[in-house]
Every structure is written in C-alpha cells, then in structure tokens.
Design brief:
The chain contains 9 helices and 11 strands. It is an alpha+beta fold. The longest helix is centred in the last third of the chain and has 20 residues, at about 205-225.
Length: about 270
C-alpha cells in the first residue's frame, strides 16, 4: 500500500499539466501528485520505468516511493535543478540551434539503449489505431499493413519527448515523465515528437507564431538527429503517418483535422 505522508508539508508548486502537479518535497525531492483521471497502472508504470531506466544509466530522475498526500496519489522523485529546454528557448532564443542540437543528442542517447522490460510499442499503436473513431475501416487496414511492414525495433522510446520534459541540469540534460515509455523503433519515437510539435500550438495563445516556431524547431531537431544516423527521413515519414493516426484516439476537436491531413497525405504516398 502507498505510504501516507504528513511531514514534510508540500512545498511550492514547481510545475504541472493535465496529468499531475509537481511540488517541492523537502530540500532535495519533489512529489508528483496525479490528477484523479490518471489510472493506477500509469502511475505504477512511471515508477517502474524510472527505476528500470535509471539503473541502466539513462538520464532519469531517481524514484524513491509512491505516496498518498491529502487524498491524492503521488510519486516522490529526486529534485532536478535547472530549466527545461522549452524555458531556455524562451529566455535565450539566440541559442535556438544549440538547444535543438542538445535535444536531438539526448534523444539519440535514449535510442542507443535497449530494454526488454518495457512493453512493446507496436502493440500499443495497433490497439489505439483500432479505437480511433475518426479513421475509416479502409484507413485502419492500410495503417495496419504499413505498421506490419515497418521494423518493430527494441530500443527505449520515451514516447512523450518534447522540450518541456528535458531539464538542463548542472550534471547534464535529464529527461522527465517516463510513464509512456515503451520499447520499439527509434523512428516511431521521433515521429511521436514530430506529431506533438505539429499539434501543440493549436490551443496556445498566438497560435500562428507558435506554429512557425515549432516548425522551425522541428526541422533543426531533425537535422541534428539524422546527422550521421543510419535511418533516413523517408523512413520517418512512414512512422509519422502511424503516429498521427494513433494520436487521433484522444484528439480534441481542433487537433483532429490537423492529424487527419497528416494521415491522408501519408497514406496517399504509400505504394498500393
């Protein structure tokens, strides 16, 4: 059973999002307090993934324990000092290419590690595509055929890799939020990041400007990621179709048309 903590009291809120709020917890820890809609399996997966991947040397915050605080489920991690790449970009836009290069380098580092203990990514993609109501049966069949033809791979895939999840700490970049991590093809993970960049501007203030910024960062990130890599951008495009289709499963009203354009354009370019 999770332990119930009273002392120390919750410190300042350090960040948060749709899934959780993050608070200071003593001098050198944080507690991630999950929102009620987050399933227990996701919370347990994040703890397991963090322990597993920290043990093999990836730049992952140390996990300590699960806790229940004022009726909310939480996980206690080491506190990582530093700024996310997303904040560094806003504060220092002249470092745009340097930060895009560091972002790509961390992603490649992750992809150089394999872990058979993580769940397979292709099974997850097949499952969510099957439940994406925006897709027609013919599109689902075509997507499944494409997915079957692509190499599954066995490397670590973060599956939520974006600049807000990479902290530039004194000891180097550290990557947060491993609850979605799986084993699979590295280009599937890159495609997931590309799809996130293609959609996360939609509800943002000043969306047209954010889109231009995201598009530029995506191209810089891909330039550095593929520099010297064995994979090609042509292979990446096949995965972008799959990942855009998978994101339709929980897409909002404004996201869906953007994702459908990616899917339809991608499927139209596939050989019959």
């Amino acid at each position: 059973m999770p332990k119930t903590h009273r002392p120390p009291p919750l410190g300042a809120k350090l960040g948060g999002g749709k899934a959780a709020d993050v608070h200071a917890w003593g001098a050198d820890k944080v507690v991630k307090l999950y929102q009620p809609h987050i399933p227990d399996r996701r919370i347990k997966a994040e703890a397991f993934n963090a322990q597993t991947l920290h043990a093999v040397g990836l730049p992952v915050p140390l996990f300590f324990e699960q806790a229940e605080i004022d009726g909310r489920r939480g996980s206690v991690f080491e506190r990582i000092e530093g700024l996310p790449i997303s904040v560094s970009l806003r504060k220092n836009p002249f470092r745009f290419f340097q930060l895009a290069g560091r972002f790509a380098a961390v992603h490649r580092l992750i992809h150089h590690t394999e872990s058979s203990e993580l769940p397979p990514l292709t099974e997850h993609l097949r499952r969510v595509i099957a439940h994406a109501s925006a897709l027609s049966p013919a599109q689902k069949n075509q997507l499944n055929s494409l997915l079957h033809a692509l190499p599954a791979g066995g490397c670590v895939c973060h599956f939520d890799f974006h600049p807000s999840n990479v902290i530039l700490s004194p000891r180097g970049p550290v990557v947060l939020d491993w609850g979605s991590a799986r084993q699979g093809n590295p280009l599937a993970d890159v495609a997931r990041s590309c799809v996130l960049f293609a959609t996360d501007h939609i509800s943002a203030p000043g969306a047209p400007v954010v889109k231009i910024w995201n598009d530029a960062f995506t191209q810089a990130y891909l330039h550095y990621y593929f520099d010297g890599a064995a994979q090609t951008r042509e292979e990446l495009q096949r995965w972008i179709v799959i990942l855009a289709a998978a994101k339709l499963r929980k897409a909002g009203v404004r996201e869906t048309p953007v994702l459908m354009r990616l899917v339809e354009r991608g499927l139209s370019n596939q050989p019959p």
